[in-house]
Amino acid sequence: MSFWNLFNKKQHSNKSIGEAVSTKKPDIHRELEANLNDIRQKLGDSSDLIIRQLECGSSRTAAAAVYMNGLIDNEILDDFVTRSKEFEVSSHTEQTIKNSEELRLSILSGNTIILIDGWAEALCGNTRGGQVRQVTEPSTQVVIRGPKESFTETIGTNVALIRRKIKNENLWVDTVQIGKATQTDVSIMYIKGITNDKIVQEIKKRLNNIHTDSILESGYIEQFIEDSNFSLFPTLYNTERPDIVAGNLLEGRVAILVDGTPFVLIAPVSFFMYFQSVEDYYQRFIVSSMIRILRYIALLISLFGPSVYIASITFHQEMIPTQLLISLAAQREGVPFPALIEALIMEFTFEILREAGVRMPRAIGQAVSIVGALVLGQAAVQAGIVSPAMVIVVSITGISSFTTPAFSMALSVRAIRFLIMLSAAVMGFYGIAILSIILIAQMCGLRSFGIPYMTPLAPFILEDQKDTLIRFPMKFLFSRPRLISQKNSMRMNEDEQQGGNANEG
Question: In sequence order, which residues have a C-beta less than 8 Å from that of residue 461 and are 6 or more positions away?
Fold first, then answer.
């Protein structure tokens, strides 16, 4: 029995995506003790570095198993050590390490290295394990109907969660290590034959061009490879749900997984993706379409609610019905601030409460947010600092912002709302219109890995309207987004469609 029969897993290659195997000169000593001393010196003789002395084969050749405590699976390792005294070790050149730098990286990655006296090579077994977080329910993208599982901080587990949903031989995974100090595993996953090869190559190119010492979360990758660092809108989608990733892979997109984080990136994206929930596809199309339209209405309220109130009170009183205008004027009679300052006070207070509720322990975070908003709002009205109407407007605006399924887009909307408020205070509805035109023009000019950000509305693609503002019934969603997947654009062929209709009949 050989070493590799015990560890039936392939070691991650320490190379860039699309590059050949490293051609570093071999520098592992033939003397076992020299290799062990070199490892101790390079790793600082760390207390969690474990070296176990072994004897291999009938010749009782001296050997050693080297690994980092806490990064390995003890059951796999103990099984190997127990049997290692009874088998002959044979050389497998495609499964050995000849470079000391790669050897140390394998140890730090959770692998076990076998060094044998008289060999200028080292055998490497994948024994990665240790304490990891179990698969739990999503915390940021909660649904009523649908799978109750989310990604973890272990990239191997995350890949497995996706493969359980897409059992296809064309689901490919390429891995690269990024970060001079952290050597973080970053994998891209796509379906060969559906995903556009140009998009895959562009993502690989951008990943290979990242030069940094550390990658600690997928947000690092997002900021390095996004199309525009100064855009107000996100150009990559992040999620902790495997079903969202699986659905986007089947549409021809690419998933980027980073070891150490439960959030997976998806590219390319469009603006409308951020207002679509995975639950839209688990409900009947009528209900899903109504809820989706409600999200777009909430988006308009979240963006323009305070701005419309400021513009109406400050510049366009003639547009307010007389009775309502009299009521608003009576409410604002004792307020010492203009509408803009009044709105900014309430908006900043609401943002502070929201941020405090997120950062505080869960047991009291929600209570602080709710009680704080009620108490401060009532106290501000009684003190004459703000009017009751402004409290209502800001409350509705804040609640509307929570309807956006994607948190990254919700953050962008919150920032843009302040810009629109300032424009409304300066030029009224004209300022709102001018800034809105600028924002729309900026969105139309954005691209996500070569794909227009406003697709399928700009450019307008008629067949893709089935799943944009509303959702058609499932049997009509037989095509993938045209600009995303150009090689295999049909989810089902005509015979399958006719067969499905015949079965319904």
Answer: 455, 481, 482, 483
Q: What is the pLDDT of residues 430-478, one digit of tens each?
A: 999 999 999 999 999 999 999 999 999 999 999 899 999 999 998 888 8
Q: Check: CB of residue 203 under 8 Å from CB of residue 188.
A: yes
Asked if residue 405 has a cis previous peptide bond (ω within 30° of 0), the answer is no
Residue 208 token pair? 């290979």
Q: Report CA dihedral (351, 353, 358, 363) to the nearest 10 degrees.
A: -160
- Write out the two tokens for 415: 């920032």
> Do the beta carbons of residue 10 and residue 126 sit within 8 Å?
yes
- Please name the amino acid found at residue 40: R
Q: Give bridge partners of residue 63 from the DSSP assignment.
A: 54, 116
Q: Give the rounded distance of the alpha carbon of 69 from its chain centre.
A: 30
Give the sign of the dihedral formed by CA 290, CA 460, CA 264, CA 112: positive
> Measured between alpha carbons, how far is 46 from 493 in angstroms, rounded to an integer?
60
Q: Residue 399 is which amino acid?
A: I
Helices marked H in 383-428: 388-401, 407-427
Residues 6+ apart with CB under 8 A from 59: none
Say what angle helices 32-42 and 100-108 make with each other, to 10 degrees. 60
C-alpha span between 387 and 329 (Å, rounded)? 10
Q: Which two tokens stand for residue 135?
A: 């698969």
Burial of 131 (0-12, 13-18, 19+ CB in 10 A): exposed
Extended beta strands in 141-258, E state: 171-178, 184-191, 237-239, 254-258
Backbone angles phi and psi of 485, in degrees to 5:
-120, 110
pLDDT tens for each residue of 188-206: 999 999 999 999 999 999 9
Q: Is 0.90 surpassed by the pTM of this model?
A: no
Q: How far apart are CA 269 and CA 284, in angstroms?
A: 25
Query: At 455, which amino acid appears?
Result: T
Question: Which is it for strands 96-97 and 61-68: parallel, antiparallel or unpaired?
Answer: unpaired
